[in-house]
Amino acid sequence: MIDLGRLRALHAVASYKTVVAAGEALHCTPSAVSQQLSKLERETGTTLVEKDGRRLRLTEAGQMLARHAEKVLATVDEAEAALAAHRDTVTGRLTVAAFATACRALLPYALHRLASEHPQLSTGLVEVNPHEGLDVLQRGHVDLAVLDDWPEVALRYPSGVAHVELGWDVADLIVPSGHRFGDTVPRSQLLGERWIAAPAGDVCHQWLLRAIPGVQPDFHVGEFETQLTLIAAGLGVAVIPRLARSKELPPGVRVVHVTPEPKRRVVVAWREASAARPAIGAAVEALRQSWVRAGSAHPA
What we know:
- The protein is of the alpha/beta class.
- The chain has helices at about 5-15, 20-25, 30-45, 60-85, 100-105, 105-115, 130-140, 205-210, 225-230, 280-295, and strands at about 50, 55-60, 90-100, 120-125, 145-150, 160-175, 185, 195, 220, 240, 255-260, 265-270.
- The strands form three sheets. Strands 3, 4, 5, 6, 7, 10, 11 and 12 form an eight-stranded mixed β-sheet that branches. Strands 1-2 form a two-stranded antiparallel ribbon.
- Helix 1 (about 5-15) packs across helix 4 and helix 2 crosses helix 3 (about 30-45).
- It is globular and about 75 Å long.
- The protein starts with a helix and ends with a helix.
């Protein structure tokens, strides 16, 4: 019988292409991954990987077994969820991947609630962008993903991943206090501004370029708090989601509402195979409560 841990090692190498990356995903050393692969080759009597420079390349047999490994691991995931549902207790380990704003605004309350109501559940948190979140979720390296999904750069949810919407997070234009704009401005009038935006490649940067064609940011910073500091210094303007802002804005800036209203969906996703697991339902409910609480703390 093929060892399940060795199949996980093969699946990780197939997914991440290098032993080092596979080890990081599996939370073990590269040498441990290599040992598992060697044992799997001896166990099956088949050459499964070959060296290709610094990388490992799967042989045809390795690729075939890796495809079966993906199915086997999904079935094991489903079986564990069914067993947990049968026990009807919230136990085990639950790791959440979330975008940066959710890590700050939603997860602390949700994870505290889970710890208080379900002391037998161990939790973990990983900050990722939404595309990375879907990837690590689909690969089975996390159990739940909290994602920001902008309509202009909408996410594509892979087969086998279910999701539910927590709500819509509206974004406003933040300008220096003495700025010429009034309380509301149409998007068509935004092109002449100096822009402060997330770094290139970030989903918020991609959204800005799609939502306001022609915008060319002068400042690229990832932290919304830093963006606010630059705005207060009179260096430019930025579109910042309400969930990412404190209730009280710092001195020197003010809010301008944009029409049509920029907004993003905040979504919770999980693997369909683990849907029956009570910990998934408990976590989704905790996040719903956290969303309601955050909404009351971030009025329009």
